[in-house]
């Protein structure tokens, strides 16, 4: 076979790979017909809810644990008699770490399974992908992960932290520790880019310098250059918004380059107990995290949650913030439905304001206007045992402010 | 200055990874002209081999040392099976080979998902390889990257020597240069093909072991690497090892430099543009094999 021929076939191969990638991107359902919304099917003695998480791909490391804790909440509610006398019947779908797949599966859960509510999504990219689907169908999503704020959809309840409950307290903590300069490292999608925009606005107003800003594609595992840049910048601290298992490669490289928590601490906003276990404590000991819940958070509600989770999934399984927020989401939905006396989405929404739940993280209150919840901010330090211990907390629940309207320095953001 | 050397080393180590993943392909694609889309999955098999061995061998250093030969044999055996069962029947039909091996790659990915689960897994690195060598002037060189560089260079040296000096190497070169003439001279070409495939796939297994030191192991890790590997071989020139070696390091340094001066995404674009421009100028790649073959 001639060399020329070999190359032409190779070109064919590459086209094939590209075509496969494009079909994956293009398979989004764009059914514009159902503007009236789909009513949930609650005719039987059960009520269906959708669970939409990535069980495969780069995000599975994190999202599988969220699925597990949603199931725990469903089991607890069913054991206590269900919601309005109906047992919850969970319908699970795999978002496969692929945003168009999330949109497709959301459409399926709403239109085919006719679920009363959907619990799930992790990355903001997946939330942005499903948002129009939920808005078009007037269906409910409970989103359990901290995110970049600047969003408020009438059909999404955000049970994780918005920026003023996580990133801003994280920056306040760094400032109180005398940090004058930071380096920003993040995955290349909407959450890290927006979060870093907010961090830069904060830095300008608070006399901090941002020495550099770098992004790696989700799933990227080559951090040699980025770590070199971080190291030579001489920053006081690193603010890390990497997601998924890029963190594994980043922290391995960080340690290999001779950097440590003592020399240049890294504050991470997407590394919780489960990820610590996956990355390895030898790479993470002493590094900081910003969340609203840790497995070590004191209180009876948390002891009960941790014990129940470990009894169901194994003693070696840690609990983490997004898992807790997902668990809380299911219980909040139950409380809203019972207050409304119906599964109807609009009735549930108008019943939501002021609903409280004695959550593992402490008391949380739903703010009906923003559909976010008031949560206590907590900064933690990763220990040698893989658990995170709190070094600072906000003392009381912080009211959600997704658009940062109460912060003058954030006025230029949109 | 420190940064400059640091970046140079980062570039070289990216090059070493590229070289390791492309070396096996330089044999099977470069020498035999078989487009094996499942090559990335052999890398994955090598990585999972390390993971499995670490479940039973507790010492991270020992398990890594054992993983190198075992992964070579595991991936090599998978390669031979693929060659004997499918590719051999399709030597005259390259497009079918392409589709069939792509199918095999999807099957292997799903198999990995079924056996090891969808979430990526990690291995523990030996303590020795998590540290670094500190040089004067604040420059540090990561031990795991040094190890990968040494492994890549050792693999190239061993392969070059094997091709130059051993009777097997002579037979492989004879088949590459002129298959028909080799056959009429009494060389069992099909057996040579099988051996070449074993070596090429085994090298992919080695690459897999090395990659566990840098990042996570997952069912799709092969897909992410296969295009880079093909690029190195195509730009390096088919039928020659030295082209792949030079191109791997050149692309590594270009990527690291571009990334330092701009961002990761822009650096990738720079690398692709450079490759396209280069292939316009030298469509045959950096080096070509001169043969009298009429094919």
Write the layout of secondary structure elements.
The complex is a heterodimer of chains A (414) and B (295).
Chain A: H1 3-26, E1 46-53, H2 60-79, E2 87-94, H3 99-111, E3 118-120, H4 124-137, E4 141-143, E5 156-158, H5 167-176, E6 181-187, H6 190-205, E7 209-216, H7 224-233, E8 237-241, H8 246-256, E9 266-268, H9 273-279, H10 281-284, E10 288-291, H11 300-313, H12 321-340, H13 345-351, E11 356-359, E12 362-367, E13 372-374, E14 378-382, E15 388-393
Parallel strand pairs in A: 1-2, 1-3, 3-4, 4-5, 6-7, 6-8, 8-9, 9-10
Antiparallel strand pairs in A: 10-14, 11-12, 12-13, 14-15
Helix pairs in contact in A: 2-12, 3-4, 12-13
Chain B: H1 2-31, H2 39-56, H3 60-85, H4 94-116, H5 127-130, E1 132-135, E2 139-142, H6 143-165, H7 167-177, H8 179-184, H9 189-211, H10 221-236, H11 241-261, H12 264-281
Antiparallel strand pairs in B: 1-2
InterPro entries (chain B): ABC_transp_permease, ABC_UrtB_bac, BCAA_transport_permease
Keywords (chain B): Amino-acid transport, Cell membrane, Membrane, Transmembrane, Transmembrane helix, Transport
GO molecular function, one term (chain B): transmembrane transporter activity
Would you mind describing this structure in some detail?
- Chain B: GO terms for molecular function: transmembrane transporter activity.
- Chain B: It is found in: Cell membrane.
- Chain B: The chain crosses the membrane at residues 6-27, 59-82, 146-163, 197-217, 229-254, 261-281.
- Chain B: Pfam families: BPD_transp_2 (PF02653).
- Chain B: It is a multi-pass membrane protein.
- The complex is a heterodimer of chains A (414) and B (295).
- Chain A has 414 residues and is of the alpha/beta class.
- Chain A has two domains: 46-161 and 300-374, Rossmann fold, CATH 3.40.50; 164-297 and 378-410, 3-Layer(aba) Sandwich (Rossmann fold).
- Chain A contains 13 helices and 15 strands.
- In chain A, the strands form three sheets. In chain A, strands 7-6-8-9-10-14-15 form a seven-stranded mixed β-sheet, with helices on both faces. In chain A, strands 2-1-3-4-5 form a five-stranded parallel β-sheet, with helices on both faces.
- Residues 21-35 of chain A have low confidence and may be disordered.
- Chain B is an all-alpha fold and 295 residues long.
- Chain B has one domain (13-222).
- In chain B, 74% of the residues lie in helices and 3% in strands.
- Chain B is built from twelve helices and two strands.
- Chain B has helices at 2-31, 39-56, 60-85, 94-116, 127-130, 143-165, 167-177, 179-184, 189-211, 221-236, 241-261, 264-281; strands at residues 132-135, 139-142.
- A two-stranded antiparallel ribbon of chain B has the order 1-2.
- In chain B, strand 1 and strand 2 (139-142) form a beta hairpin.
- The termini of chain B are far apart.
- Classes of the chains: A alpha/beta (414), B mainly alpha (295).
- At the A-B interface, helix 1, helix 2, strand 7, helix 7 and helix 8 of A face helix 1, helix 4, helix 6, helix 10 and helix 11 of B.
């Amino acid at each position: 076979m001639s060399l020329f021929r070999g190359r032409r076939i190779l070109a064919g191969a590459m086209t094939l790979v590209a075509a496969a990638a494009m079909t994956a991107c293009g398979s989004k359902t764009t059914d514009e017909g159902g503007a009236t919304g789909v009513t949930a099917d609650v005719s039987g003695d059960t009520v269906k809810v959708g669970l939409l998480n990535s069980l495969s791909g780069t995000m599975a490391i994190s999202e599988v644990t969220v699925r597990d804790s949603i199931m725990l909440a469903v089991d607890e509610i069913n054991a206590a008699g269900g919601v309005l006398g109906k047992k919850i019947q969970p319908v699970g779908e795999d978002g496969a770490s692929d945003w168009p797949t999330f949109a497709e599966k959301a459409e399926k859960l709403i239109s085919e399974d006719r679920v009363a509510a959907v619990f799930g999504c992790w990355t903001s990219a997946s939330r942005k992908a499903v948002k129009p689907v939920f808005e078009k169908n007037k269906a409910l999503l409970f989103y359990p992960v901290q995110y970049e704020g600047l969003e408020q959809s009438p059909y999404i309840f955000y049970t994780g932290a918005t920026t003023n409950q996580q990133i801003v307290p994280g920056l306040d903590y760094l400032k109180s520790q005398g940090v004058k300069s930071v380096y920003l490292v993040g995955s290349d999608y909407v959450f890290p880019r927006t979060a870093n925009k907010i961090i830069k606005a904060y830095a300008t107003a608070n006399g901090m310098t941002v020495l550099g800003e770098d992004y790696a594609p989700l799933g990227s595992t080559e951090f040699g250059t980025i770590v070199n840049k971080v190291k030579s910048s001489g920053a006081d601290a690193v603010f890390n918004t990497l997601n998924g298992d890029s963190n594994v490669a980043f922290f391995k490289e960080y340690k290999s380059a001779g950097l440590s928590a003592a020399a240049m601490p890294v504050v991470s906003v997407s590394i919780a107990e489960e990820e610590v276990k996956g990355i390895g404590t030898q790479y993470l000991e002493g590094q900081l995290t910003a969340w609203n819940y840790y497995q070590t958070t004191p209180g009876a509600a948390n002891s009960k949650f941790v014990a129940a989770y470990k009894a169901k999934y194994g003693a070696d399984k840690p609990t983490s913030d997004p898992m807790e927020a997902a668990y809380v989401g299911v219980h909040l939905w139950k409380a809203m439905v019972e207050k409304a006396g119906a599964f109807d989405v609009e009735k549930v929404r108008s019943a939501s304001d002021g609903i409280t739940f004695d959550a593992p993280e402490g008391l949380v209150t739903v703010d009906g206007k923003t559909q976010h919840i008031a949560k206590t901010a907590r900064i933690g330090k990763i220990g040698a045992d893989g658990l995170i211990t709190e070094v600072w907390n906000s003392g009381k629940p912080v009211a959600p402010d997704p658009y940062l309207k109460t912060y003058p320095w954030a006025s230029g953001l949109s | 200055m420190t940064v400059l050397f640091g970046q140079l080393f980062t570039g070289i180590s990216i090059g070493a990874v590229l070289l390791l993943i492309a070396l096996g392909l330089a044999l099977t694609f470069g020498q035999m002209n078989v487009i094996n889309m499942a090559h990335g999955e052999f890398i994955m098999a090598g990585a999972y081999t390390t993971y499995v061995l670490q479940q039973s061998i507790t010492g991270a250093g020992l398990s890594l040392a054992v993983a190198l030969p075992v992964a070579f044999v595991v991936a090599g055996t998978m390669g031979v099976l693929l060659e004997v069962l499918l590719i051999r029947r399709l030597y005259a039909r390259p497009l079918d080979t392409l589709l069939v091996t792509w199918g095999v790659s999807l099957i292997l990915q799903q198999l990995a998902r079924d056996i090891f689960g969808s979430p990526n897994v990690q291995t523990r690195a030996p303590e020795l390889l998590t540290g670094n060598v500190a040089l004067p002037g604040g420059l540090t060189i990561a031990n795991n990257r040094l190890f990968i560089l040494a492994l890549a260079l050792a693999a190239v040296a061993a392969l070059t020597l094997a091709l130059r000096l051993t009777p097997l190497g002579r037979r492989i070169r004879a088949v590459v240069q002129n298959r028909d003439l080799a056959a009429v001279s009494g060389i069992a070409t099909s057996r040579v093909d099988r051996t070449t495939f074993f070596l090429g796939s085994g090298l992919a297994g080695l690459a897999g072991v090395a990659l566990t030191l840098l990042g996570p192991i997952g069912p799709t890790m092969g897909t992410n690497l296969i295009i880079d590997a093909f690029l190195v071989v195509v730009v390096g020139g088919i039928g020659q090892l030295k082209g792949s070696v030079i191109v791997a390091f050149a692309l590594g340094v270009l990527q690291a430099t571009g990334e330092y001066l701009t961002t990761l995404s822009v650096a990738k674009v720079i690398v692709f543009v450079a490759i396209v421009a280069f292939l316009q100028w030298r469509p045959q790649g950096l080096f070509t094999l001169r043969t009298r073959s009429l094919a």
